[in-house]
Amino acid sequence: MKYMTSDEIREAFLSFFESKGHKRLPSASLIPDDPQLMFTVAGMVPFKPIFWGKVDPVYTRVTTCQKCVRTNDIENVGRTPRHHTFFEMLGNFSFGDYFKKEAIEWAWEFVTKVLEMPEEKLWVTIYEYDDEAFEIWKSIGVPEHKIIRMGKEDNFWGPAGPTGPCGPCSEIHYDTGLEVPVKDGGIPTPANTDGRFIEIWNLVFTEFYQDEEGNLHPLPRKNIDTGAGLERISAMMQGVLWNFDTDLFAPIIERIQNVLNVKYKEDPKKDVSIRVIADHVRAVTFMIADGVLPSNEGRGYVLRRVLRRALRHGVLLGAKEPFLYKIVESVVQKMGHIYPEIVEKRSFVENIVKGEELKFISNLSRGLELVQKIIETKGKITAEDAFKLYDTYGFPIDILRDIAQENNYELDEKGFEAYLQQQRERSRKAQGEVEFAQKTGYETLDIETVFVGYETMESEGTVMKIRKDNEFIDNVETSEPIQCELVLDVTPFYAEKGGQVSDKGTITWESGKFEVEYVYNPVEGIIVHRGKLTGKLSIGQKVFSKVDPIRKWTMRNHTATHLLHAALRKVLGTHVRQAGSLVEPERLRFDFTHYQALTKEQITAIEDLVNEVILSAIPVVTEVKSYDEAVKEGAMALFEEKYGDYVRVVKVADFSEELCGGTHVKNTGEIGLFKIVSESAVSAGVRRIEAITGFNSLAYVRRQDEILESLKDKLEAPVNELSVKVEKLIEERKMLERELATLKKKLVNPESVASNVKTWNNVNYVSAAFEDIDPEVLKELTDEVSERIKGVVLLVSKIGEKVVFTVKVPKELTNEYHAGNIAKVVAKILGGGGGGSPTFAQAGGKLPQSIPEALEIFEKMIRKEVQ
C-alpha cells in the first residue's frame, strides 16, 4: 500500500467524486444554521434541510470535506488512538439521484484503486436485513465471509427523534492486524473483536421514513449520506495505529515539544497531555475562527472547557505561563491552505487564546489559595471540594492528587468521578447526545410560506395551519383571547433571525382577529405566527395581515448596524468582524471582535462616518446573486447567517456590502441621527456597542437637554460653565472628607482604647465598638492599639445599617491565633463574610445589633473557650 499525505488523500477523494459528477463544495461553518445543533458534527449537517425534504437541492450530487466538532467523548481524547474534538469528514452525497449500487461501487473503487488499500485488509458490515447491499458487495468481489451482518444498533441510521428519514448503513473496516482477544473463538472480524478493525467509511442509505408508531415507509426520494474520517484514513495510509502519529498532527506536536520543552513518546503520562493539547488546539483555532468566543454558556462554554482542558494538560507538563497561543501558528501553517479563514483570523485567535490563558492562570493561582484554606480548615480535600475546584477554577485533579500525597491523605477520586459524571449527564442533556435534538412539530409538514415583507407591510393570505397547545387543529372559536400559532401561505411578518427581532402586528378576518406577538422559523420554508386569537377561524380561511408600523424603526436600526460594521472596520482595522447583534425598534446592539476599549476619538470618528453616509441619502440596494459572486465582490458573510448557493446582498454604494436576509430602509437618509450610547466589553477580544437612530436619537438629545437644564438651575451656572463648577464641587467635597476623617481620628484616642486591655494566659487583648469610623481610620487605629498593648485587637464600627471590623494579631502570637480565622467567626455573627492573613483581617456584616455578641465570641476565642 502506497504512502499518502493527508493533503493527497483529501484532494484524491474530492477529485474522485468530481469525476463521478459531484459538485465540490467548501466546508460549511462549525456554527450550523440549526437551533437544534450546537456545532456542525457531521458532513451531512449543512444538507439537513434537503434530507428532510424542506429544500430542493441545487446539485443532486455533492462532495465535501467538512470540518466538524464533537465533545461528547472528550474524556477519551488523548487516551485512545482515534478520539478527537475536531476532525475532518470526507463525504459524498446524493439527493434523489444515485443510490446503493453506485455508492458501494464507488466507495470500493476509491479505497482499492485510488488509495490502493489491499483488498485482503478490508471488511464490510451491513444491516442484518439489507440483502440488497449484501448482493452488491458480493457482486464487486467482496468474499461473503467478509460481509458481516450487524444489528440495528450498529448498522441502521435512525431518525432524528421519534419520526423522520432513516435507513440502513454499510461500513468499510480496515484490518490493522493487531493481536486482540476474539470473543467467540473464531477468526477475527469487526463483530467479535475490539480495536483491531478500524471503521474508515460509513455509507448511509436514507430510504425510509419512520412514523410515530415506528413503522417504516419507503421514501419517494432516496438519498445517500456518507462519512469517511480523514484522520483515520491518513493513519491507515501512513502505516500508523494512532491518528496522532500522522502528518496531520506531526508539526503541531513538534511545536508543543519546542514550546513546552518536552519530548513525545518518552513518558506515557506526558504523551497523553501532548496529544490532548494537539487535538484541542485544532478545535480551539477553528471554533474561534468561525466566530465562537469564550463564555459561560452555549458554544462559548464548550470552547472555554476545551481550551482550559488543554491548558490544564499544559500545567501538567510544567507550563507556568501562557503557551497555547504559541501553538496556534502550527495549526495555521498545517491547515491554512485548505481553510483560509484560520489564516485571516490567526492574530485574532492568538489574542483570544492568550487572554483566556492569562485568566486561567489567575484562576489556577486562586485555586491554589483555596486548596490551602480547605486543607487548613478540614485537613483534607473532599470529593465535593475537588469537583468545585475543578468546575469553578478548572483545577486539575492531577494536581490535587499530588497535594494529597504531600499532605498524607487520600483523595476521594471515586467520589470526584461521581460528581463529574453527574455534570456530564447534565451537559449531555443540554447539548444532546444525538445528532439532532427534539423536533418542533413542523418538520414533517409539506407546506411553505412565501415572505413578502421585503416589498410590503401588509398582504392577504390563507390559513394553512392552526396549532393550539402543541396540537394541530382544523378550526377554533373563542370569545376570549387564547394563545395559539398560525401558519399562512403568504405573510409580510419577518421571523426573528440574524439578530433582528420578529415583527408584531395583526391578522384579521371578518369574524375575528389575531394579535401577532412573535414570529419564528421552526424549519426552513415555514413561518409561524404566535399570539392571541379572538373569534372564529378555520383552515383555508382568507385573512389580512398588517405589520405594526414600528417595523420601520427596526429597519432603520438594521441598516445602521451594516453602516456601523463598515465604519468600525475603517476606523479600527479589518480584523473587526461581527460577533453578534440585536436589532429591535428601540435600539441596536452590535458585538464585534476587537482587543481593547475604544477611545473617545475613535467613537467620534465612527459616529461621524456613519452619519456622513446617512446625510448623503444613499440608496440601499438589495440584490440576489450567487454566493461565490457576492463574496468575490467583497460582500461580508456573517457567522450567524445561513447561505445557500444564492444569497441576498444588501449594499450601500461602496461603503457597505453584506449578505443579509433582514429588512432594511430604502435610503440611508431614512435612518436619521445615529448616536452611540455605550461601548463596553463582552468577553476577551469582544466589544459591544449600543446605539440609537431616528426618533430615539431625538428623544435621547432631549433627555440630555433636560439634564443640562436641571443642572444649570441647581448649580446656578450657565451650561458652558457646568464642567468647571462640578470639578470645583468635587474638590471641595474631597477636602471636607479629609478634614472629617482627621476629626474622627482625633475623637478616638488609641491610648484610651488600649487602657481597657485584658490578659489571659500571658496574652494581652482588647476589643471595642464605635460608630461612623471609616474602615481606613479603623485599620490605623487597630495597628496603633495593637502596638501599644503588644496583643490581639478587635475593633468594630457601625456605619449606618452596616458593620466593618478589623482584627490584628502580632506576628509572635500567630502560632496561637490566626487573624483571618477570627474574622471568619466574627463575620458570621455579624451577618457577613471575610477573612485575611494570620496577622491582619478586615471584614464586614449587615447585623449591627449583633455587635455585643461578636465582641463576646472574640473574647471566648482568645480564652480558647471556642474554636
Attribute tags:
single chain, 867 residues, alpha+beta, 9-stranded mixed beta sheet, 6-stranded antiparallel barrel, 25% strand, globular
Description:
It is built from 24 helices and 31 strands. The chain is α+β, with helices and mostly antiparallel strands and 867 residues long. Strands 1, 2, 3, 4, 5, 6, 7, 8 and 9 form a nine-stranded mixed beta sheet that branches. Helix 7 crosses helix 8, helix 16 crosses helix 17 and helix 23 packs antiparallel against helix 24. The longest helix has 33 residues. 40% of the residues are buried.
Uncertain segments are 430-438
How would you sum up the major sheet?
Answer: 9 strands, mixed
Shape: globular
Question: In angstroms, what separates the terminal alpha carbons?
Answer: 75 Å
SSE class: alpha+beta
Number of strands: 31
Mean pLDDT: 89
Report the oligomer: single chain
Backbone CA Rg: 34 Å
Percent of residues in helical segments? 25-40%
Helix run count: 24
Percent of residues in β-strands: 25-35%
